[in-house]
Design a protein that fits this description.
The structure holds two protein chains of two kinds. Chain A is mainly α. Helices cover 65% and strands 4% of the residues of chain A. Chain A is built from twelve helices and two strands, in the order αααααααββααααα. The longest helix of chain B is centred in the last third of the chain and has 16 residues, at 185-200. The chains are: A mainly alpha, B alpha/beta.
């Protein structure tokens, strides 16, 4: 180091050429591969059992495959499938937005915001979603009038709000509020996963807390947040079957149950509903695979690509040495 | 602010973490254009003192002035009023800080790291910030790495980006918190070179370091801290070559 200090300008010493050093090599190992006979036996037995089950199911009377075929693409069923999908997408959308707000509130330096978020989580994570949905169904009975005035002191006007919000809306509200409590914890874990040193660097640079969150913490938390959110979407798709508690029965499960009650055939319509649920979750799983792969590509960058170091202090004319990468990523 | 106003003036600064008093009535003065190196064993309070200068840590007693301005508080009469976060930020943005672990923004390229604060905090235009960013990266010898992400850079390169990022805010004072302690030995030199060049431009610097060679060659003043107090302070050659205190002698005999 003493040399570098005296010259002052030089940075990294030029790489030493190692190609001239002779290397003696040993033979490449050729060994007999380890065999796994039990693995193969177990697989064959398992395949036989599955085949047996499929053959049996195909002939079994109780499944009533003809009815399954008849109702699988019935317009009422496909409409219900669409409604289930709409419930899932809307509830997740609002759940994620509210969850993000709650997580940021919980981590904020403001104790009031912190406690509001904590209380929200306490209620909505602490009670079953089914119970919450029943409550949302009864909300019009609980709140019938709107009173304008000073509470407990003076009343100026009493407005009768005999309202009837669409049940679909109540379902979305109930599901998204419950979901936001879970998303808040996922987002919080993501935010906490970001190295606190970077927040400190933001503070030292004079950036505000809001800027630090928006520009530095949240973008990097996304890598941690995305995979469990995929799980939440799949979980939400199935949770929509609970909206019958409101009672809202236009979704996949409610609709197929109504149909089965009129034709006295519960089992084939359960199979119809299951096939649709499985179809949607399969599509979502494929989607999740690609989303995760996209984010894994981001961490691929962690592989060090040590570019050539510019020698000389000014870097005059040597800027072209490296790969020409644009300003923005 | 006359020429005589010191850049940093600490008056009997104390700081405790719980019952552990890490700074015990520290009084120090850093003049304009001066490079002050702070050495001492780990746990001596030297990093904490550095973090108190830009109010990353709140001090419990004493007063800390940067460029004549009281840090973190406003004094009216004998009462102190805590500053709003926005006011504290305004004080901090003129003070550059370089961390032991670089603390670069992992999702931004080297250039974006350097451009971020001028755009967000100073309201600079993208074009100006980019031109200045490329300029600064060239100055620390990383013109060709402007599009690289921190994970693609060596430790020494990351620390040079961190220095460029701090310089982008045109600071009047630079704080270095063990800038080379997390680096492989062969990468230390390139970071010290950048710091040496910066010192030659007349930048006021406070450097917490274990690099005695740097302290001797570049430092205008040297402070040896131990147990939360300043044991010895003075000319680096004097303190390193002819330590007066028993504790300083014992420490230097181990590190030199």
């Amino acid at each position: 180091m003493a040399d570098a200090q005296s010259t002052g300008g030089g940075r990294t010493p030029p790489p030493v050429d190692t190609s001239a050093i002779p290397i003696e090599r040993a033979d490449v190992i050729k060994a007999v591969r380890l065999r796994h006979p039990w693995r193969n036996t177990f697989a064959v037995v398992l395949i036989l059992l599955v085949l047996l089950f499929i053959l049996d199911a195909a002939q079994r009377q109780a499944f009533q495959w003809d009815i399954v075929g008849k109702y699988l693409f019935d317009t009422r069923v496909t409409q219900a499938a669409f409604i289930t999908l709409a419930l899932t997408v809307l509830s997740m959308l609002f759940g994620i937005i509210l969850g993000l707000i709650l997580a940021v509130m919980r981590l904020s330096p403001n104790p009031v915001l912190k406690w509001i978020a904590w209380a929200f989580l306490w209620v909505f994570r602490g009670t079953p979603v089914y119970v919450q949905l029943v409550f949302w169904g009864l909300v019009t009975l609980i709140y019938k009038t709107l009173i304008i005035g000073i509470p407990f002191v003076h009343t100026w006007a009493v407005i009768d709000i005999s309202w009837a919000p669409p049940l679909f809306l109540l379902a979305v509200i109930g599901l998204s509020l419950n979901e936001s409590a879970y998303m808040a914890e996922i987002v919080r874990a993501g935010l906490l996963s970001v190295d606190p040193g970077q927040e400190e660097a933001c503070t030292a640079l004079g950036m505000s807390w809001g800027q630090t969150m928006r520009r530095v913490v949240i973008p990097q938390a996304m890598r941690v947040i995305i995979p469990p959110t995929g799980n939440e979407v799949i979980s939400m798709l199935k949770t929509t079957s609970l909206v019958v508690a409101i009672p809202y029965t236009m979704d996949l499960f409610g609709r197929t149950r109504d149909i089965s009650a009129t034709i006295f055939a519960p089992i084939p319509l359960l199979i119809v509903a299951s096939i649709w649920y499985l179809f949607f979750t399969s599509v979502l799983m494929v989607g999740q695979y690609f989303v995760e792969k996209r984010f894994a590509r981001g961490s691929d960058r962690s592989r060090p690509v040590l570019g050539p170091t510019v020698v000389g202090s000014g870097g005059e004319g040597v800027a072209g040495v490296g790969i020409d990468v644009g300003g923005k990523g | 602010m006359t020429e005589q106003t010191p850049m940093v003036e600490a008056v009997m600064v104390s700081k405790s973490f719980g019952s552990n008093e890490v700074l015990k009535s520290i009084s120090l003065r850093v003049d304009r254009g001066q490079v002050m190196c702070v050495i001492g064993p780990s746990g001596s309070g030297k990093s904490t003192f550095l973090r108190c200068i830009n109010h990353l840590e709140r001090i419990d007693a004493g007063r800390l002035y940067v460029d004549g301005e009281l840090m973190g508080y406003r004094q009216r009469g004998d009462r102190l009023y805590e500053l709003k976060p926005s006011e504290a930020s305004r004080q901090r943005r003129d003070i550059g800080m370089v961390f032991q672990h670089f603390n670069l923004f992992g999702h931004m390229t080297a250039l974006e790291n350097v451009m971020e604060a001028p755009i967000r905090v100073k309201g600079a235009s993208r074009k100006d910030a980019e031109a200045r960013g490329r300029d600064l990266l060239a100055r620390v010898g990383l013109a060709a790495q402007s599009g690289h992400y921190p994970a693609q850079l060596s430790g020494g390169q990351q620390q040079r980006v961190a220095i460029a990022r701090a310089l982008a805010m045109d600071p009047k004072l630079m704080l270095f918190d063990e800038p080379t302690s997390a680096l492989d030995p062969e990468l230390v030199g390139e970071v010290l070179d950048v710091m040496r060049e910066l010192a030659q431009t007349g930048m006021t610097m406070v450097v917490v370091t274990h690099e005695m060679g740097f302290a001797r060659e570049v430092g205008d003043a040297l402070v040896f801290m131990d147990g939360g107090v300043v044991v010895e302070a003075g000319d680096p050659h004097e303190v390193l070559g002819n330590p007066q205190h028993q504790r300083t002698k014992a420490f230097l005999s181990k590190v030199l």
